Amino acid sequence: MSSITSPEIPEISWFGALCDDDYEFLGVPEPALASSWPHCSEIVGTADRNGFDNVLLPSGYTLGIDSTAFAAAIATHTENINLLLAVRMGEMWLPQLARQLASIDQFAQGRLCINIISSDIPGEALESAPRYQRTREWMQVLRQLLDGEAIDFHGEFVDLTLDPPRARTVDGRCPPFYFGGFSPAAKDVAAAECDVFLTWPDTVASVGGTVSEMTELASTKYDRELLYGLRAHMIVRETEAEARAAADRLVSKLDADTGEAIRNRSLDTASAGVARQNELRDSSSDDGFVEEALWTGVGRARSGAGAAIVGDPDQVAAKLRAYMDVGVSAFILSGYTHIAENDLVAQYVLPQLEHAPLKPRWTA
């Protein structure tokens, strides 16, 4: 049984926008907001200064700058914030990946977390079942290497007999694995191998159902416990009217063709999770809201997380607490533009949650 314990206060994380996903108006690129070292390091630095616990550094081959290289660089330019580095399983040689991750954790003085990505690697297409089997094997072997264990593993995708690298993480253990997926194969891998199961924005009842399902699966099949995280966008203003006006403004220059082109840039456009986000958007009312404070308009120009929590500080904090009540203990938040919205969330939302940064890294 895992000994991971939920923190008494939620982990509040931000989004690093390495994948060219920062706009003043969705669908209208601005050179100053494109993925680059100056811009993305400013996003991370802002989140660090504002007291966020963690920052997701996304990975996309055709989008933006490289997440692993960025993590190594930003590790020495941050003081408190954890770095949630997205790593695509199968993209790199496992022993070298373990050395890189251990080295980055040293640079960050023990602040590395790992976001496991199971999408196709560039230039290939695997069916869901073998792709998730590869992800399972990679997660198992990567954890062993980062735990300092010798490898004698002979699977369908990994055939390796090897001692662990001398490079070790600061605490000598594998950083926590964050992982999300909604197909049966993805959920089984998550139940067996991850530490934090991530879900995209959805109704509170649907998120609660996912938490219950995954808790049952992890417990009964693998005798494990999971933590649960929610990825969502934020639009918070002093009043509800101002927040709704900001949401309308964000999509005011977006046309349908541009939105579809942006959605199709991702490698995971056919995933079960993306299908659920499309379904959520289709079920919303004419103003894009699917329930109190949950607005699906962002999904018109995103293939992944496609809804935002929109409202005044009390409404937004209440929404986050509602997700916490059904089992969510970690949030990965973002907003447009990422620096301006981070300041607003820090001003209006973090005090409502009586949030204080979680240090050191919370893991078993």
Descriptive report:
- By secondary structure, this protein is an alpha/beta fold.
- The protein has one domain: Alpha-Beta Barrel (TIM Barrel).
- The protein is 38% helix and 17% strand.
- It contains eleven helices and 13 strands.
- It has helices spanning 37-49, 67-74, 94-107, 128-146, 184-193, 204-222, 240-250, 256-263, 272-282, 313-325, 338-348; strands at residues 11-15, 54-57, 82-88, 112-117, 151-154, 159-162, 177-180, 196-199, 227-236, 289-291, 294-295, 308-311, 330-334.
- The strands form two sheets. The chain has an eight-stranded parallel barrel, surrounded by eight helices. A two-stranded antiparallel sheet has the order 5-6.
- The radius of gyration is 19 Å and the shape is globular.
Oligomeric state of this protein: single chain
Please report the total strand number as a whole number: 13
Element order, helices and strands? EHEHEHEHEEEHEHEHHHEEEHEH
CATH superfamily: Luciferase-like domain
Main beta sheet: 8 strands, parallel, barrel
Q: Give the strand order of the largest sheet, numbering strands 1, 2, ... along the chain.
A: 1-2-3-4-7-8-9-13
Distance separating the two termini? 11 Å
CATH topology heading: TIM Barrel
Structural class by sheet pairing and helices: alpha/beta
- Helical element count? 11
Helical content class = 25-40%
What proportion of the residues form beta strands (DSSP E)?
Answer: 15-25%
Write down the overall mean pLDDT.
89
C-alpha geometry: globular
Q: Measured on Cα atoms, how large is the radius of gyration? A: 19 Å
Stretches where pLDDT falls below 50 for ≥5 residues? Answer: 1-5
What CATH architecture do you see?
A: Alpha-Beta Barrel
CATH class: Alpha Beta
